[in-house]
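Thread: "does anyone have the structure for this chain?"

Original post by V.I.:
We have the sequence but no experimental structure in hand. Need at least a predicted one for the grant figures.
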Amino acid sequence: MTKIKLLIIGMLFSINSFSQGNATTYSGSIRNYSAHPEFTTGSLILHNAVTGADVIHLIQIAPNGTFSIEFPLMRNQSAWLMFPFSRGHYVYFEPGNRVIHEFDLAAYPEIKSNFKGDLASLNNDLWKASIATASPPNFEKELYGFTPEQYKTFMQLRKSKSLKSLDSLKKQDGLGKVAYSRAKAEVNLESAISLMKYSYQMEVAHRLSNSISFANKTPTIPAAKLDASYYDFLSHLKYNDTANLSLPSYRIFLVYLQQIDPIEASVRVKAKTILSSSTNSSSAQVPEKEIQDNIEKLSRSTELIKISRQEVLKKITKANVDLEIDLLNIQQVCNNLRHNQEALTDSALLALKSELKHPNYISEVIDLNDKIKKKIAYSRIAKGSKNNETPKGAADSLMTEILNKYKGKIVFIDFWATWCGPCLLAIENLRPIKTDLMAKDIVFLYLTNATSPEKPYRILSSGIKGEHFRLTTAQYDLISSKLGIVGFPHYAIANKNGVITDQNYRWNDPLKVKEKLTLLADEPNLRAGE
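Reply from O.Q.:
Generated one for you, tokens below.
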């Protein structure tokens, strides 16, 4: 029995070691940083193409402009790099490597970038390639009124220009073979993503051309229903290749791939066939509305979606898409894990593994599942978080009633949701500064609405120190309309009198948040009306 236990422990340790990955380092320096003290942090974001999750690593910039972070990496991967002085770029990493990055701000806003250390030549080439193939900004207005075919032609011409720019760069600067291959694959993926976003781009073009605000999220034009022939461009890509996992846009590509219209159409046909069969076998007359409601309900069936996804993608791509099917199925499971905050049983994990053509990726699901278990366990003992009852009374005075509870204190208000990835990343980003600020009697107030399911809300909020309120849809909508909130996350600041003085506070640097809240807290108490 002892040997069996040791074997199981060894297996778990092996899986956990794999999921944690090898320690990888990103470090460097920023020349002429002293002229820009407003830049104190950056972010490195890892987009996991297996689980669909984002992991953010905060980069602290020292007063002399140097920085260094270490993070676990499971496979070759591109990470999104964000500094306040840069528009954002991808950097390529391999597990265990040390990537050194040097910036020069002497001619700011022009940025000079140079890599040293491991993967230096490849990253320098990829950096140049990303600039050479970048799309021109603000082109959406040109798309107004385009038919699907016109849109396809426009986007494919843009792709051709990007590929020509890449070829020119290769001839002039001697772009390396690996960098050229990766950059070319990335251009093709980005083009495919753009083509799959036809309805979205038409909505944007319509709003821009007609000066319609983006505050209202209700579509202003009907979404197009595109048939399989429109998606023929998908047959020109490379599939079932694990090297795709390291490409910057591959995860986003998978997001849009699972949403293409032919998959939805196939699911609905299958749902109608099933319901038609059951209706024909019954003598009872079923109202049309009930039939349509049942079709909608059945169309959300996980099994029907999986079957249709496999059939449609194999037909459209004319390729082996086993890897893509595996990843989409895994992401569906992982999205439910994050949304419901309910761990999978061992039998459910085994069932998922048995479905996969690439079963090694089950390790990452196990890793996420273990994290959910730990969150659930922590939620039972966590301290520093308080879930409050929403004040009863007039809805239009609700925000005032909530803030009255914290009069005499500065209040940082965070409008968030359990399903909002950027919200959770930002909450994690602010975690290091909260202890000092809460010691100064600064309140962190978290407001969400009914779109955050009760159980995940209780589990996640328990791990977020601060004051929490879960509002009804009507209550939240009223506050949103008063403060001009159009989405998550959103931030506001209230003074010591309980008056919101900044109803749309924007930030990208936790240390600047700390600086601002500290200054406000150090101000003398205001008299009512000040």
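V.I.: this helps a lot. Confidence is low (pLDDT under 50) at residues 1-19.
O.Q.: and The longest strand covers residues 22-31.
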